[in-house]
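Obj.: predict assembly geometry.
Materials: sequence records (below).
Method: joint structure prediction, all chains together.
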Amino acid sequence: MSEFWSDYTVRVVFAGSAMVGAVSGALGCFAYLRRQSLVGDVVAHSSLLGIVLAFWSVYLVTGAGDKSLYVLIPGAVAAGLASLLLTRLVTRNSRIKEDAGLGVMLAVFFGTGMMLLRWLQRAQPPVPGRSGLDDYLFGMAAATTSKDLWMIGSLGAAAILTMLVNWSRLKVLAFDPEYAAGIGLPVRWLEVLLLSLMVVGIVIGLQIAGVVLMISLLVAPAASARQWTSRLGRMVTLASVLGAACASGGALISATSRNLPTGPAIVVLVTLTFVVSILFAPNRGLLFRRRHLAD
Amino acid sequence: MEVAIETRQLTVAYGAQPALWNVDVRIPLLKMTGIVGPNGAGKSTLLKAILGTVPRLSGEVVLHRDAGRNGTAVGYVPQRNAVDWDFPITVFDLVTMGTYGRLRWFQRPGKREREEAREALAQVRMEEFADRQIGELSGGQQQRVFLARALVQQASIYLMDEPFASVDAKTENMLIDVLHRLRDEGNTIVLVHHDLTTVADYFDHVVLLNRKLVASGATATTFTPENVEHAYGVAGQHLVQRHP
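Observations (raw structure tokens):
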């Protein structure tokens, strides 16, 4: 066992997934409270197209495939934001409602990404470095390199720091945006900021949790944490801890069992956490409420 | 009459549906003004247009020079159902939000802000609830907390959207006392109000609205059965009378 822990790869994987879970857990609280979970899922799914296109363009330019996060994350960000911008464009200029627009955009971006991914994998002659790209569907924490770790760490730290600096403003924005505008806060700008933070929280986790299941790491820790506390600060802290625990736990499960993608392992853990929270949390837990009613 | 808020040819629309149409209204300084009109008359929209949180299609809103243009000059109390009361903050947190408008970019609410929040809570007699989660309050208590948040802003103009909706009579009396005191201390109060039977008692000035301006002026001369009937369509007479 000690041999297992001293293994460099294991430590990189463990640290990377813990960081991802901590960041997405914290930022997910704002998505949860602003009822933007679906927006987060659209960003996550849509980023597949960006990942594939980024990989492909680098191959076309350099002649070699590069799967490092330095290449793929900018692509993921661009595709995620593009899908949200297109949704806004469509819902502004037609009678289509936001949820329908988001649903359609998710399907279009993810579907196109999926098609290009399969095409890329079957292309002859084979594109060098293409194997492992489909790990982005369900996540493969074991593929994390120390170079990726730096990318995850610096982006995650920047996002958390930005959140803390703007804490009061983000709090009033999430609670009462109209009031925030009334007291002269730059609401438009803050909304873009919060959305960007959420996008960062999502894209740094794609390699570990995968585009399909990343949303669980964003929303489930927040929903679980809300059960245990009624203070925003504690909720964000607890969601961060739960996220880190579930993500690193999932990464270890996946790393120690052959070919098990990390995303599903994480989902199992966050689901367990969520079920326990929804049943047993004091005050808000279902069992507590049942007992309360019986008294 | 010194004017606190003046709108000129104000038009606001949501989509193709005009909510306010060419409204010219002058709200007097240091008075308590009631905005009344039927549902969908654009009363809340008028407040939001003054606050600047809904886009104007045309026209302008001019505030009294003392109110200035800085964000904390206008204290806004939204309708109670405008926010999610399950949001994880305490009563004290919510009231402290009133100070955020004057905090500098890297500043956090400090000792002074906390002191002010405590004072505002005392004014609406909610000190003992400071540490409660906001969802644990009754409707009337929630309204008092919203008022405390506006008080903390140290505004000179207060815009309130139906503060007495589903509030018990005791709380309503308490709130109206606080508001009258606030007015007497040199502030301008504007309320969207639903209950026509109390208009004459509460307000110095009345604005009758039904998408267009119906009438505006001192309550005694403006709040007449004819004007009410004009704003509400039929049945104006019996709406005004306390005992039909």
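Conclusions so far: The radius of gyration of chain A is 20 Å.
To do: check interface contacts against the pulldown list.
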